[in-house]
Amino acid sequence: MPRPVVPGCGLPCDSTLSDTAIVGRRGLVGTSLSNSTVYTDVEFLHDVYVALLGRSPDEVGKNTYLDGLSNGQISRQDILRQVMASEEYSNHYRSMSAGLEEPLGCSRDEAEAVFGQFAKYEGPGRAGYVTNFMGGVSEIAVSHLLDGASGVVEGYPIPGNFHGETLEWIGTLRAALASGDTFTMIELGAGWGPWCVIGAMAAKQKGVPHVRVIGIEADAGHVDFMRRNFTANGLAPSEAEVLHGAIGLENGTAYFPQARSADQVYGGAAAFSDDDKESGPFAAFMRGNSDLVETVEVPCFALSDQLNKFDVVDLVHCDIQGAEFDLIPQSVGPLTAKVKRLIVGTHSFEIDRKLSEVMGAWGWVCEGVSACKMRGSPGGPRLVADGMQVWCNPKQTRAGASDLTKE
User: What φ, ψ does residue 39 adopt, rounded to 5°?
Assistant: First the structure.
């Protein structure tokens, strides 16, 4: 699911943030705002400084914070808020907001050529929301770390915006540009459904008469956010459908770590069997978050059945926290038969490699890759930043990766 990030820095607002997550697409990881022996205070400070300030901690600051953490005078949440309130962070954020940082997985020229095909919103901000460059909004209530972003109007998302990177944006917008009389999209692990809204708004702006988007999300609180988000962006029930449940290979049920406070935790992964509860993405998430979530049973929807609702699907956006390792390769046949474009968030080197091999073997053309970042740790490799892959299916589209901006 998409994770809201502190504006400009790639730091997810997973706050209270969990032992899987402070994972920012553009460079931070971390994992926990709660104390953890898995994710040490030294690691936490390094990741926060790099993500928010663009540098490693200085010795004075590091030692002061480490002393405060060890004697209980300060929490990780306090440190995050103090750094975000600093003049240094403000200056660093301004430089990034000015577009001085390059995007990952695509060029600035390529991105601007796509963005330039859409009318740029020039109006005022909306209280309680962040407004993107096309005029779409996201409610700040999706994460308490967005409290200070009320009324913000974003520019072009280079190197990204508060919830995603440039490559995701241009992949979604290309899908809208390449659609015909109908734009159809499915967002897997949708969170509050930001990509459904972006795709729908882009298609409408280009005059597509029929829009149909489906957001599939397993966390009940995030499902509520998504419904509100669709309404706030003027999507009618006939245009936007919300499905509460996990996405998988078969219809049935799944286990999911539902957040006790929906604005506090993102990044949960589903388990599809009792064995999955003991290992894999679900187990990894629960090791650092058991006090922040409760395990619940939710419906599981077969991806093939969702695809079969339509003759053609313009875009599938998938961010399911490691479950893509099995879902995408085992669903590549139905995907190839139905889907024009696929955007996948990846969560390990193994997944990056496997998807590249499988999609290429089925004839898909890669439009952009931003590899995930991993870091060694005593417990094994740790995800430092999500990866991103954008694939085009020549069997369903007239243009491939060689003509990315003229569809």
Answer: -120, 105
**What domains does the chain contain, in order, with CATH numbers?**
5-97 (no CATH), 163-403 (3.40.50.150)
Position 313: which residue type? V
DSSP calls for 279-347: SSHHHHHHHHHTTTEEEEEEEEEEHHHHHTTSS-EEEEEE--TTTHHHHHHHTHHHHHHHEEEEEEEE-
What CA dihedral angle connects 400, 346, 177 and 7, to 10 degrees?
Answer: -140
Q: What is the pTM of this model?
A: 0.83
For residue 220, pLDDT over 90 is answered with yes
Nearest to 190 by CA among 9, 407, 386, 2: 2
Distance in angstroms (rounded) separating the CA atoms of residues 267 and 97: 25
219: region left, alpha or beta (phi > 0 left; psi from -120 to 50 alpha): beta
Rg (CA), the chain: 20
Q: Look up tokens 């540098």; give the residue.
A: 55
pLDDT tens profile 327-362: 999 999 999 999 999 999 999 999 999 999 999 999
Tokens 């193994």 sit on residue: 350
